[in-house]
Amino acid sequence: MIGNTLLQECGFLHNCLFLRSDRVLIAADVHIGMEEELHCQGLHFPLNEEETLLARFGEAIEFFRPQRIILDGDIMHSFATIPRRVREKFRRILSTITEYAEVTLIRGSHDRLLPYITGTSTAESVVIGQWHIAHGDRDLDRDRSLIIGHEHPVLELDMAREPCFLFGERVCDRHDLLILPAFNPLCQGVVVNSLRCGELLAPMLRSIDPADLQPVVEHAGEVFLFPPLGKIQACSPALH
Amino acid sequence: MQQERITQAARSDKEILQLFDPVVREWWIRTYGNSSTLFTPPQQIAVPLIHDQRNVLICSPTGSGKTLSAFLSILNHLVILGRAGNLDNSVYCLYISPLKSLANDIHRNLEEPLAGIRAISEELGAPLEEIRHAIRHGDVPAAQKAKMLRLTPHILNTTPETFAILLNSPKFREKMRTIRWVIVDEIHALAGSKRGVHLSVSLERLQELIGKEFVRIGCSATIEPLEDVGGLLAGNGRDIAIADTRFVRKFDLRLVCPVPDLINTPHEDLTTALYSAIDELVWSHQNTLIFTNTRHGAERVLQALRSRFPHRYSDLNSGCHHSSMGKEARLEIEDRLKRGDVRVVTTSTSLELGIDMPHLDLVIQVGSPKSVAALVQRIGRAGHSLDQVVKGRIVVVDRDELIETAVMLRKGLDGFVDRIQIPGNCLDVLAQQVLGMALERPHHIDEIECIVRRSYPYRSLSREALLSVLRYLSAQHAGMDERHLYAKIWYDAENGMVGKKGKAIRAIYYMNAGTIPDEFVCDVVTRDGSWVGKLDEKYLERMNPGDVFVIGGSKFRFRYRRGGNLYVDPTGERPTIPSWYSERLPLSFDLGMQVLAFKEETATRLEQSGRGEVLSHLLSHYPVDENAAASICEIFEQQIRFGGKTSIPSPHSIVVEEVPDAGTSRRTYYVLANYGLRFNEGFSRYIASLVAREITANVAVAAGDMGFILSVPLYKRVSVAALLARAHPDTISAVLMHAVENTNLLKRVFRINAARSFMILRNYRGRKKSARKQQMNADLLISFCAKIRDFSVLTESYREILEDRFEIRNIREILARIHTGGIRVTERRSPTPGPMSFGLAAMGARDVVSVEDRISLIREYHRRVLQQIGAVA
Fold first, then answer.
1. B 28-67 near A (Cβ less than 8 A)
2. Label partner for B654 (CA 20 to 30 A): which of A40, A101, B27, B852?
C-alpha cells in the first residue's frame, strides 16, 4: 500500500483505525483504569474515563458501522491488582461495544489478568487480509503487513501535540507497518518527531528507522497524512 | 488603620534604658556602653514602641542592630515574668524567618544576650528562671520536635510553612495560645509573593487561637511601599508604626564599564576587560562578594577568575554559593565568609538575605541588579557596622543594562525605591488555609470570611470568590457518586457550616501544605549520550527545538525532550537564547519610566548641546566612570545618526520599528516600550493577539525589559499604532486571557496552583511526585478544568498571570494614556533594526499567540510542512 491509497483503504477517527474492506475497527491501548492509577499517583480530579471511552467508541462505531471490533492490547492498565471499580468499568464498556459487533481482545503487556476477568476469548494476534494485528510487545513473524499499538505515538507540531498514527511503507521486511496511537486520551504519549533507529519499543521494530515513518493525524474528522518524520525534522520551525 | 512613619526617636537613650528591668539594663550598659551610641537608630525607635505593645515594622539596613531592636523589649518582659515565677511551659514569642539558615543564625544570636543576662542575674543575686528558645522547621529531627511538648521553648524560631503546620497540630497548638509577640524577619522577601499572603492568613488564624491581639513586629530591608508591607503584617483595622531608618548608611557606589566603547569592542576583548576589571577590584580589597543575576553566571565568573589568574585565585581563597549547590558546600562557604577566610565569593541571589558577613569590604554586582531594592540589599552586605561606608561597584557590559543601571544608581542615591505589589485574593492559598481551618474544627462560612478578610491581601475578598473555593474543595465539579473521592471538605449551604472530610485529608494536608513550588531540572545530554549539564524549568518553558543555547561555556542546539532529559547536538552557531534568559529578573515598571525620562533628557541634550555637554553632565550627575559615560554617549549618538531623535522612546512616545526580512520570510516589529519585563510580557501578548486577529496568522513574540518583538509572515503587514488606537482599554482582560490560553506560561502557573490547592499532590501514599510529572498531570487537567464554570484553580491561574505577572494595572494605565494622546506610537520602517533595538534583536521569538483553534493549527502546520518540503525538493 502506498501513501495515498492508505487514506482510501483505511478510516481514522478518535485514534481508531478502520479497515474499510473488511469492516474492522481497531483500537489499541485502551488502558482502562488509567484514571484510578492517576488518582493513586496524587491526581485528584474526576477524569470521566468511562464516559469518555464510551463516547469515543460510540462515535467511531456510529461513523464506520464495523462488523468486527478488535481491542489491540493493553486493554487494562493495571497488571497487578485490578480494583473492583475498574473491573466493573471494563465489563460495562465491553458489554456496550459487544452489542454492536463481534469483539476480539488481543493481549498486551498490561493484560496479564485479562483472561481472569472476562469470559470473552483473548488472543495473541489476529490475521485479517494482508494485516497481522498484534499489540507489539512481543516478536512476530514478519510475513505480512503489521498493525500494532504499544508505542503511544504523539506528533509535536509547533507548540502543540497530537496523537498520531505512524505509517511505514514497506519498512518491515518489505511489508507495511501501521502503529496506532493510544485510544485512551489519559495516556501519556511519546513524542516521535526525533526518534532514532532502535528507539521504538516494539522488539521487532528495533532495526526500523522512525525517520521513514509518516505520521497521520486526525482531528474533528479531517485526516492529514504527513511526509516521513525525517523530512519534517529538517524543516525550519515557524519561529525565526 | 493608622500607619505612622517614624524616622526619629521619640525618647532619649536614657529614657529607653529606664524602661528596662535592672538586670537587663545592667547587661546592656556593660555590653554596649562603650559604643558610639548606646542604641542604634532602629533600636531607639522600635524598642519603646514594642514596650508599649504597639505593632512595628522596622525598616533598616544590615548591621544596624535590627535583631535586638525587635527582641529587646521581649527579652526584657520575659525576664520580668521569669523572676516572678510566671514563665509557663509555653510559647510567648514566635520568630518567623523565610530561611531555615536564618532561623539557625538568630538562634545563635539569642544565645549571647540570654547568657549575658543570666550571668548578670546570678551576679546580682537574683537568679532567673531559664528562658528557653528553640528552632523548628522541616530539617529538625522528630525527637527534638517531640521534646518541645515536654520542654516548650518560650521563644520559637520557625519558617512560615512550619508555622502553618503547627497551627494544625493538635497538641502543639495548645502551646501557642500564650504567644504575645510575633516577629517576622526579612519580611521583604515574603511580601511580594504568595508566601507572604499565606503567612498573613496564618497570623489571623493564630489570633483566633489566642483569642486576643498580639504584638506584630516586622523587620525589613529596603522596600516600597512600606505602608503596604505594614498592612500585610498588621492586617486590616490594626495600627502599625513604621520605623524607617533606611538612609542612615552611607554608600560609595560606582558604575564601571570595562571598555570605553562598549558597542564596537569585540566580544573576546570585552570579556578579557571585564575579568581584568573584576580582578583589579577584588585584589585591592580584603573580602569581596560578587553578585551575578544567575547561578550559571556565578559559576562562570569564578571559573574565569581562577583560569585567567591562577596565581591569584584557587579554591583556597575563592568560592561560589548558590541554591543548586549541596547544603554542605553552602554551609562551608558561609562559614568561611563569616570568618573572613576567603578572598572572593561569587553568588547569585542566595546570599542576598540575612547571614552576617562582617569582613566584607566590597560588593561587586555584575550586570544590572534590575531594581533599586536588590541593589541596596546586595551592596548592603558589605560593611558590618553603621558608620562604615558601604562600598559597591557595578560592572556592566550590556548597552541596555548600562543605561538602566546608571539611572538606577542615580535614583537610588536620591532615595527612590521601586515598588512591589502584594498579590491579592489568591484562591489557591485560600483553599489551603480554608482546609487548614476545617481541619481544626468545623467553621461557619461567615467566620471564615471574617478571619480571612482581616488579612491585607484578602481585604476585598468577595463572598462569591470564597464560595468558588468551597465549591472546589467540596468537589462540586465531580459527579455525585464520585464526589467522596475528591472532596476534602463538606459544605452545608443551608446552615453555612464547613468541615473536613475523608480520612486521608489530614495526612494529605501535612505532606503537601506550603506555597513554595517544586521546580524541575532537566539533564542535558548530547544525542550520543554525553552528559552536558543541567537546565532548570524556567529555561525550558521558553525553549523550542532548533534553539541554540549555551551551557557550561559550550553551545548546543536543542533537538527534543524525552523523559527528564533534553537531547542536544553540539553546534558552533550563534545562540538564539541568551544564557541568562531563564533567570531574568525583571526591571520594574517604575524604573522603566525613569529610564524613558533619562532617554528623552539625554537625547535632547545631545541634540542641542553636543557630546561634550552630555559627557560632563553624566560624569557630574551620575556615579559612573568615564568609560561608562563614553559608552552611554556613543549609544545615543549612534541611534540619532540611525533614525534621529524621534527614533528614541520617551515618556510620551513608544517607537515601533518594522523590519522585513526576505531571508527568513518574516516581518518583525521591534516595539521599544521601556516599561520593564513584566509589563512587556503582558503588553506584547496583548498586541500580538490584536495583530493575530487582524491578519489571521499566528504571531511569534518575545519580551524583554526594553521592549518586545512581534514576528509575522513577510506577506502580512499591520499598523501597530492603528490597532492600538482602535482597541478599547476595557477589553484588555478579555484579550489577554485569550492570548494566554494555550501557552506554556498558563500550564506552568496552573500546575503550581493545582499543587497548592491539593489537586495535584506532591506526596501521596508514600510516593513523591517530581515537578515534571506534576506538569504532565497539569497539562492533562487544564482542558478538563476549562469546561467548569468559575473553577477556582483555573480562575486563580489567570488572575496570577494578569495581575501578578503582567501587572495589568500598569498596562491599563499606559493604554489609557495612548488613548488620550498622552503617549504617541511612532512607527518607522527600516531594513535593519536600530542600535537601540540591538538587545531586542538578540532575543529570538519565544512564544506564539495563535489566532484560531486546534484544527487550524494542524492545517496550517501541515500546509507549511508540505510547502517547505516542496521548496527543498
1. none
2. B852
Q: Tell me if A238 is assigned to some domain.
A: no
**Residues from chain B contacting residue A184 (CB–CB below 8 Å):** none
* Residue of chain A whose alpha carbon sits nearest to that of B701: A239
Convert the pLDDT of each residue in B760-814 to its tens digit.
998 888 888 888 788 888 988 998 999 999 999 999 999 999 999 999 999 999 9
CATH code of the domain covering residue A27: 3.60.21
> Choosing among A34, A52, A89, A158, which should be mutated to test the B contact, i.e. which has the most B CBs within 10 A?
A158
| Segments of B644-749 assigned E as strands | 653-661, 666-672, 699-704, 707-713
Cβ-nearest to B477 among A39, A46, A239:
A46
CB contact under 8 A, A239 and B844: yes
**How do residues B545-558 score in pLDDT, each as one tens digit?**
777 877 655 778 88
Q: Which domains does chain B have, with CATH numbers?
A: 3-247 (3.40.50.300), 251-413 (3.40.50.300), 427-512 (1.10.10), 521-583 (no CATH), 653-862 (no CATH)
Q: How many domains does chain A fold into?
A: 1
Encode pLDDT of B15-55 as tens digits: 999 999 999 999 999 998 887 788 999 999 999 999 999 99
CA angle centred on B684, ends B683 and B686, rounded to 5°: 60
Structural domain of A64: 3-232
Q: What angle do CA B745, B749, B753 make, to 5 degrees?
A: 165
* Contact of B562 with B379, CB cutoff 8 Å: no
CA angle B5, B8, B14 (to 5 degrees): 135
Over residues A31-79, the pLDDT tens digits come to 999 999 999 989 999 999 999 999 999 999 999 999 999 999 899 998 7
CA distance A170 to chain B (A): 22
Q: Does residue A239 fall inside a structural domain?
A: no
Chain B: closest CA distance from residue A224 (Å): 7
Option in B477, B546, B780 nearest A236 (CB): B546
pLDDT at B312: 93
Residue numbers in B near A237 (CB within 8 A): 544-546
Distance CA B347, CA B349 (A): 6
